[in-house]
Design a protein that fits this description.
Length: 158
């Protein structure tokens, strides 16, 4: 069995889709799964949509924040994250570009002789098509190192 056909077992499908796939031959099923894997772009949830339109100044500012504090990766989909202690910046990014804002308590830790107290961190996160749109929007203003990371996250050849 090809690796391409394995996702068929793990895909959540309605009963009608399951009956349809059961009626196909193995070759047709493999072809359908290949198409499903290529065409999947994720869904854009309306509650994570941006509220305001960013100006050029806002885009440059977001690119600077992403350059300094941002993180991107490509696992099953593109993912963008920026972490900050003060929440206003994350809320501003959420207003301009969409995504979600969450807070997490970091426990106190020791580094050598220094003891760092516990503190709250605020995270702005985006996944899927919106993350790809954000990365393409700020790409022009990033350093060569960050551009390389963005190309990797977008799945574009370097």
């Amino acid at each position: 069995m090809s690796k391409r056909t394995k996702p068929l077992r793990n895909i959540k499908m309605s009963e009608a889709k399951k009956r349809f796939f059961a009626s196909l031959t193995l070759a047709e099923r493999r072809e359908r799964v290949k198409c499903m894997n290529k065409a999947w772009t994720g869904r854009m949830r309306p509650e994570l949509a941006p509220i305001e339109r960013p100006t050029v100044h806002d885009i440059v500012l977001a690119a600077g924040w992403f350059e300094g504090e941002g993180h991107t990766r490509m696992k099953t989909s593109s993912h963008v994250q920026i972490a900050q202690r003060r929440p206003w910046m994350c809320h501003r990014l959420r207003t301009l570009f969409g995504g979600r804002v969450s807070r997490q308590l970091h426990k106190k830790r020791r580094l050598g002789r220094r003891l760092f107290p516990s503190r709250w961190m605020t995270y702005w996160r985006m996944d899927g098509p919106r993350a790809r749109g954000f990365l393409m929007t700020v790409y022009k203003f990033l350093s060569p190192h960050r551009k390389k990371e963005v190309r990797k996250a977008l799945g574009v050849a370097a």
